[in-house]
Inverse folding.
């Protein structure tokens, strides 16, 4: 796969997202994904689906040691006293004694970042999580994180990122610091699927626009976590791992940048770079 940057990461390049999926819908999605070959699952406390994700994993034939589970700590649980108990509740819901990765979901405006990262470090020391990281952090917050625990302790920064929102300032800074990036919303709520440039590249490769967008992100060195409830789409998304884009393809996609941000909740979002 053509890559403009390669950054070694503990985070698998491809996984399943579960945002907005609950109850039987998320159980079905996770179960189908595991059957077709997914081995990384991303969830979060605020999604309200950790128990269902755990149930789907327990019902599958996939051994726990083959899975990479990520959860995210919600803002109300980011204090030094609340974080670890909340993670323990997440682990109980997920039916596991640890997750591979725990992230700060959104930066807190009331809890010092050092307190939250310190609690995450202690959770790692206790074996509750193998790695720690952040999500929705801008450059200033990444700088604070590095000052608090060092870049080598930040496994990834999970951010909204797509061909329409390439977040180059943040990803370039992260890369310079040796911090990996995970892309969520890589397909931009489906808006990208009708893009004529992606459609043209897809036609040339016998692929779909969604596969092209996912392959682009992975070629850039980012992890992706697309979600789907349909087995055919789950398989098609996974197949993007085999799509090799050329240098001209990558240049054409780079030109699609338009600052089209979909997720920026009031009271949570930082000042974006």
């Amino acid at each position: 796969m053509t890559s403009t940057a390669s950054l070694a990461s503990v985070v698998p390049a491809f996984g399943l997202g579960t945002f907005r999926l609950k109850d039987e819908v998320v159980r079905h999605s996770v179960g189908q994904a595991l059957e077709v070959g997914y081995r990384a699952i991303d969830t979060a406390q605020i999604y309200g689906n950790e128990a269902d994700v755990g149930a789907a994993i327990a019902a599958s034939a996939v051994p726990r040691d083959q899975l990479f589970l990520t959860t995210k700590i919600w803002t109300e649980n980011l204090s030094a006293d609340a974080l670890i108990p909340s993670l323990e509740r997440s682990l109980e819901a997920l039916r596991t004694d640890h997750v591979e990765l725990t992230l700060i979901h959104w930066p807190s405006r009331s809890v010092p970042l050092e307190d939250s990262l310190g609690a995450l470090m202690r959770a790692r020391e206790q074996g509750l999580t193998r790695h720690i990281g952040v999500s929705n952090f801008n450059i200033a917050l990444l700088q604070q994180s590095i000052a608090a625990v060092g870049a080598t302790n930040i496994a990834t920064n999970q951010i909204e990122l797509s061909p329409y929102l390439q977040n180059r300032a943040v990803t370039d800074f992260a890369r310079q610091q040796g911090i990996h990036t995970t892309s969520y919303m890589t397909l931009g709520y489906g808006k990208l699927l009708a893009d004529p440039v992606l459609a043209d590249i897809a036609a040339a490769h016998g692929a779909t626009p969604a596969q092209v967008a996912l392959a682009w992100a992975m070629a850039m060195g980012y992890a992706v976590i697309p979600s789907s409830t349909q087995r055919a789409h789950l398989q098609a998304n996974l197949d993007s791992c085999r799509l090799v884009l050329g240098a001209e393809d990558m240049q054409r996609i780079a030109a699609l940048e338009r600052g089209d941000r979909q997720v920026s909740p009031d009271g949570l979002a930082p000042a974006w770079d």
About this structure: Residues 1-6 have pLDDT under 50 and may be disordered. The longest strand covers residues 129-135.
